[in-house]
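User: I'm curious whether this sequence folds into something compact or stays loose and floppy. Could you predict its structure so I can see for myself?
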Amino acid sequence: MKLRPAAVAGRFYPADPVELATSVDAVLAAARPIGRRPVALIAPHAGYRYSGAVAGAVYAQLAGCRATVTRVVVLGPAHFVPLTGMAVPDVDAFATPLGPVPVALDARQAALELPGVEIADHPHAAEHAIETQLPFLLRSLGPDVPVLPVLVGATELEAVARLLSALLDGPDTVAVVSTDLSHYLDQAGARRRDASTAAAIVARDPHALRPFDACGYRPLCGLLRYAAEHSLGVELLRLTTSADAGADPRRVVGYGAFLLAA
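Assistant: Here's the prediction. I'll summarize afterward.
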């Protein structure tokens, strides 16, 4: 089996499997499922110390879908490698302290048939945006649900929406867009900007967003285009900043949790 090694275990989240499972289970248990079956979710990807509770609010919505969700597509930004278009990995699975997460091979093949999608491991090697989602997926859905990791670089929102249309072809597949919100404003400024961003997301209006509103701007805008095309409703679950978890309030990162459903 060709594995992509965990790149940020011990930094963004615990490397010890017992500690990791315990910490993820705790935030999942503390969250409130709203009882709607998600078509897609928006989750943060910072260190769990800062954004774990917000991610828990997202993934608690999947707990009731364990018997029906059989595939997850996770889209995130390419933070470290310049990328044009979208990249899916060539590996068979992503390693985590909780065990491997299999790559959805059928979804990968379907994605590669679309223009602007390439197969490449290098953009995924050090990337945390998708890796940080995997322990939550393992604890909410179990170890047997395959995932298609998609890193989104410079591409049009229509291309992302087209990929989602091709892959969300039945009720057994859920999409997750991994993004943080504002970066390095003071607490008051971050709250204002993130409230405006959240309103645009709930309104499914990608044209109201700017690249500095969210680090996952491109996959997020593509998801909102898809949501508008398919008449999905968007619900804000939680909106916080790193200062709410004890970080310096003079320089914060914003986090949001959203559910998209028919």
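Summary: The chain has one domain: 3-179+194-240+254-261. The two ends are 37 Å apart (CA to CA).
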